[in-house]
Design goal:
- The two termini are 18 Å apart.
- The chain has one domain (2-57).
- It has 58 residues and is mainly α.
- It has helices at residues 2-22, 27-57.
């Protein structure tokens, strides 16, 4: 689960970087805002992961 979350985060960040190159007018959103949101979400998922696993294990 964590590998998938971080893989999607890094892939999304790379795609956003490419979009920033192709469409420079979007660079504020695609270089700073959206990658920050995805990385913060991945950190949140990582922080909550142990609790979820313990709850699932019963």
């Amino acid at each position: 689960m964590l590998t998938l979350v971080w893989g999607i985060t890094f892939l999304t960040t790379a795609v956003l970087g490419w979009i920033a190159v192709v469409a420079p007018s979007t660079s504020d959103w695609t270089n700073r805002v959206l990658p920050g949101v995805f990385i913060a979400g991945a950190f949140t998922c990582t922080a909550r992961y142990p609790e979820r696993v313990r709850a699932r294990a019963g």
